[in-house]
Every structure is written in structure tokens, then in C-alpha cells.
Amino acid sequence: MLTGAGATALALGSPLLSKTALSAGAPDAQMKAVLDELAAFEAPPIEKQSPFNARNNPTLASAVMGLLAKQGKPAVEMVGDVSHQLIPRPEGDILARIYRPKGNGPFPVLVYFHGGGWVIANLDTYDASCRALTNAANCIVVSVAYRQAPEYKFPAAVEDAYAATQWVLSNTATIKGDPKRVAVGGESAGGNLAAVTCLMARDRKGRMPVHQMLIYPVTNYAFDTPSYRENANAKPLNQAMLKWFWGYYLRNEADGQNPYASPLRANLRGLPSATVITAEIDPLRSEGQAYAQRLREAGCSVRATNYPGVTHEFFGAGAVIDKAKQAVNEAAAELRARFAGKTVQ
Fold first, then answer.
1. From 143, 188, 273, 286, the catalytic residue
2. The one catalytic residue among 127, 129, 282, 286
3. Considering Cα of 194, then 195, then 198, then 202, what sign does the dihedral take?
4. 312 is catalytic
5. Residue 26: pLDDT above 60?
6. pTM
7. pLDDT higher than threshold 50 for residue 17
8. Which residue blocks in the chain are alpha helix, DSSP H?
9. pLDDT tens digits, residue range 63-81?
10. Catalytic site residue 282?
């Protein structure tokens, strides 16, 4: 298991060794500027609010937008085009936002799940990540609006994620995609859903994505890791918030033992290659690193990198944080390689 302040960022299961290593410390200057902008909103702590109110809280994305406005920079990164698609399900249609790069295709596809602890956030909150990945990986990104708790508790989000992925794999041509080049990915709770989608595809004998892109994924219903202790009061995500999220997501304590809620507890054999990106100042760092190690032990090729001096949610802030741009480029390079049937060298 990769834990502790001295752990290095390993490209697990491949000849790669990332030069980005974990070093204990405060947020770097660019990350601090975003956190200061977020603090200026003076929003009540999420764990003190109802889900309805928490969904209207400012986010790190709000802070990035504020900084961009002050710097006179464009608010969004342009892509080829953006459209929407309803994915049919007996339980109700699932809305997906489709980002396409410039060109005619067919393009590879990334089915993407946003973060927010399965309770808050939406497609807009993670728009920047999807736009950046569309351009950097030259792929279609299908961002899925899965059902959220507490209105829809576990396993509703998981079932939506799996159904959306299987729909994309079976209907890729309708969105100008290539059915042989479909990956899944997500951030935080969305990283959890991407990982579990692969588990479900294996267990249900569905079509398997070619790769899983896991950005600081939630992988275990437990609060006892080194990074939980080190970052118990971190911003924008802390231990109290994570307990709040889990409390609304699960139907009962037993659900937390289910590998479709806690994939770190699953048998991980037979899964596709993975990119796992974690942040130093994040309660989820240790379990993301542990999941990367478990995947490697199960025979999967894994590239795992921890970024120092940044926090949870940094990935979508590439417009103002250089390390976020670096992380997006790293994830995109791995996606391009896997779409081409190769391993990054």
C-alpha cells in the first residue's frame, strides 16, 4: 500500500515512473489563490447543511471562475461542440452532456462521472474537466447526470453509471464515436462510479471499457487512513464532509461493505488498465493509492501519480493551476495510448 508523506508517485504495472512525488507541505501558491477565493464566499460548511442547501454552495469551480474573471481570462475552454442526449432506462431517462473535439470522427469516447459525494454537484460543476479532457485526449466526453442521494440512495448512482456506459458502448455510432475505443473515468465519487462500472461489466458479463481514469477516487467506506488523519480539516474536502456524504448515500451500514460501494474490498482481477491520480492535501489520497496498488497486484497495468501541494478538486482547475493542467495532460496521454492499444512509455 502506498501511504505516508514519503511515498513516491509510481507508474504501477508499467515501466513508467512519474517525477511527481509526494512532499508534505502547505498548498502551493496557485492552489492557495483558489482556496482563498473559495473562502471569500464565506459559505456555511457543507456538513452543517441539508443536501438541498449544500447543492447551492459555491464550489472550487466557482472560485476558479472568480479568479478567471479577475484575470480577464476566458471563462470556458472551447471544444468542437456540446450537445445533450437522453439515455433510456426503465427507471427513467439519464441525461448526458456530450463534448466533441473539432473534426469529423469517429472519435474515441470517455464516459465521465462527476464528483460531489453522490449528493451534490452536477454537469456544470465539472464542465471544465470535461472540456479539458476533450481537447487534451482528442476524444468525445459523455458526462453522465446520474441519480443522486438522498433522493436516490445506493445503488442508484452505480446502476445509472453502468447503464450509461453500456448504452454508449452499444450506441457509439450515434454520437460519432468508435465502439472499440471507449473508456470510463471520473473524479472523487465519480471515480468510484467509474471503478465500480468496470467491476459490474466483469461480473455481469457486459462490454468492458478499455481503460479506467480514476481521479482521487472514493474506494472504501472507512475513515482510518493516514490521509484521513493528516487532512481531517482540509479544504475543500475534509473528514466531516466525507462522513456526511456517505451518510446520505448508503441505505445502511451494511452497504458500506458492498464492493459496489467500496471497490477496494472487491476482487479486482480481470479489470482494464487504469490511471489513478491523487492529491497530497486530500483525505482520499491513501485509499486512491491503495486502490492503485490492489489493481497492480490483481494483474492490471496502472499508472498512479500523486500531485504535491494541491487539494481535492484541483484537476479541473487547469486554467489557473499549472499542476492541474499537468494532471489532465497525463491522464489524456494515457487515454490516447489506451485508445491506440498501447502503453505510455
1. 188
2. 282
3. negative
4. yes
5. yes
6. 0.93
7. no
8. 29-39, 51-54, 60-71, 127-137, 156-170, 189-203, 226-230, 239-249, 285-297, 322-339
9. 999 999 999 999 999 999 9
10. yes
